[in-house]
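Predict structure. Chain length: 264.
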Amino acid sequence: MSRGDGYPDATGGGFVKRRPDAPDGFFAAEAAGLAWLAEAEPNGGARTVRVRAVGTGTITLERLREVPPTAAAAEAFGTALAVTHAAGAAAFGAPPPGWQGDAWIGRQVSPMRSFEAWGASFADLRVLPYARRAAEIGHLGADGLRAVERVADRLHAGDFDDDRPPARIHGDLWGGNVLFTADGVVVIDPAAHGGHGQTDLAMLELFGAPQLARIQAAYAEAADLPADWPERTGLHQLHPLLVHAVSHGPSYGRHADQVARRYR
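Prediction complete.
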């Protein structure tokens, strides 16, 4: 999910992303998320791009040079991502420390509020707002909305909750935000919040990523996921599918409808 146009800075050593129409705090929220994720790096967490400066409509980041992805780098990233998630969050749905209020995923508002249970947070913050908006603009049919609402009822009932504490997740981890460099994988453009680690894995699978199977296997081992974890991948994909239904059209709404029917 693109966050804005980018170009090299005047020195050639950094990368500037700009969005002249950015709402107040748009790039500051991104910087807060990057800083929060980076706190896990000394303990073996995933590397995040460095922030050099934040302006009203710009953010300047370190310039990264990509290299061909390798199995070893992918496996290292899967393990590191599990460490980042294990660094934890204050609550499910909570924003990074130092940031108050809602944030953004792509150009869509990403609500932030604290919940004790993952299921309720996922339903109220990551599923229902986008489903209702997609339905309003005709990108999700009435039957699809009802299917999503039935999944939300199950989420509220705790049917999909487990004993895992809030994870420190990237929140927008599609393949374009996972960059293979000579120093290993670096993640960019987060929509960071307290969530469930499998949400990051699900988005990687939905949109594809180099060496995905290696990332997943290393993560599952490091995070000690139960053997049936792939059965819930579609559930976690409802969030990005519905975000895209709002911003990219009804084909994503139809996909979300199909997925929701599996979990209603």
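Summary: The CA atoms of residues 198 and 232 lie 8 Å apart.
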